[in-house]
Amino acid sequence: MPKLRGEAFWRETLRSAHYVVAPMVDQSELAWRLLSRRHGAQLCYTPMLHAQVFLRDANYRRENLYGEACPEDRPLIVPFCANDPEVFVQAALLAQDYCDAIDLNLGCPQMIAKRGHYGAFLQEEWDLLQRMILLANEKLSVPITCKIRVFPDIDKTVKYAQMLEKAGCQLLTVHGRTKEQKGPLAGVASWEHIQAVRKAVNIPVFANGNIQCLSDVEECIRKTGVHGVMSAEGNLHNPALFEGRNPLVWEMAEEYLEIVRKYPCPLSYVRAHLFKLWHHTLQVHQQLREELAKVKTLEGIVDVNRELKLRCQEEIANQKEGEKPKEGLPFFHWICQPYIRPGPKERCRENGDSGTEKGVRGKRALEEEEDGNSELLSKNKQKKKLRNPNKSFDPSLKPKYAKCDQCGNPKGNKCVFNMCRGCCKKRAFKETADCPGHGLLFKTKYEKSLSWQHNQRGIQTPEISQTGDTEVGETAVLKEAGDN
Fold first, then answer.
1. What dotted CATH number matches 6-245?
2. Per-domain residue ranges for the chain?
3. Which parts of the sequence are annotated with region: Disordered (predicted)?
4. In Å, what is the CA distance from 368 to each residue of 53, 361, 364, 372?
5. Phi, then psi, of 180 in degrees rounded to 5
6. d(Cα 482, Cα 464) in Å, to the nearest integer?
7. Average pLDDT over residues 390-395
8. pLDDT exceeding 70 applies to what percent of the chain?
9. Which of 40, 247, 338, 393 could, after both became Cys, cross-link 243 (CB 3.0–4.6 A)?
């Protein structure tokens, strides 16, 4: 059966999904996806996966996709970050049986994406993106989709989207912010850009940005004409967003924790979700915020959640008639509701700064420092500096690692092939060679094995690279050497 494309793919495979949960690192795991689906989400993405790691590491595949297979978790899209067509497609081939589409993530704006050269930092490399999508569209049995950020210029954004469509993209998610708009500088997403893309392409389009409640979803669809709307932070603070409800926080937290019991995930994921759900309450009960940060077990998290529930119920019991929410919140703090990220000026005031450049740039210090434009240090580096005052973070003093000729990872300093250990092992095995630098002695072990056979059987040692029975024997010897 030929794979569906464009509108047919959205309508039949994705079941005309309008409400979409975004891919979120360490936050859109199976348990959270199932919770979101129970409360109105019609389509979910897994967290973004690293194509090269997914291809080479069986444990990574099991932990991030294979071990999470669940019939209830469909339709499902798996996003990859990648910058090599072959690596991307080979990784996608390993994932396609576990999902309904493969997404090429071109929207990640974080520093790790800049260092790894993927995500939004590929948006100027149109030739590379065309080759990646063309190859994926040709080789995969499921459709290829893309998630992008916009350029400041609407016309360039439209041409970008049309290029991706022409290359074979079957669905496009447009985040209406540029790659520079993130963290405290996120600002408002441009629905104007999204609307222009929707009018210019003939494939389904999802919108991402400015979604805090169901009315935002409805307004976005009305103004932009998109097929569906994706939510990230809005969903994290209120997983019932797509139902149009604002439930009690402890109801969502308890339901999520029950799902986690059935579908376990790292404790750090669970803790992060409760920090989001209880965000406004934890501003009031600071002591429990610290306890939630320190707790080491799932049962400990359940206990903190129970204590937060009891304190909120006590507040409700003592509430005076006509009392209104504090801190300008639309609801009382124990009700799921949006969190509006403060801009640079607000963040300065929160941190006790006067609005100077230093206050504005504190969050972005690491990025600017790496670009050589600032002497400021990130919070993590400031902590390291306190532990070791002599430590230097000058990029010019960092050791430069030579890269493996084969894969780009750091090569072994004494490798005879100028490769990393993994690539060196494959080549040394294939060529029956030694690499003392990596402790790989295929040739030496092979020669010792032949010598041992000669002594045992009293026959003449066969030469390397013979055919017939000798070749079969050599293969067994090589395998034995490789296993050792």
1. 3.20.20.70
2. 6-245, 247-340, 400-444
3. 346-394
4. 28, 9, 6, 6
5. -80, -20
6. 17
7. 77
8. 86
9. 40
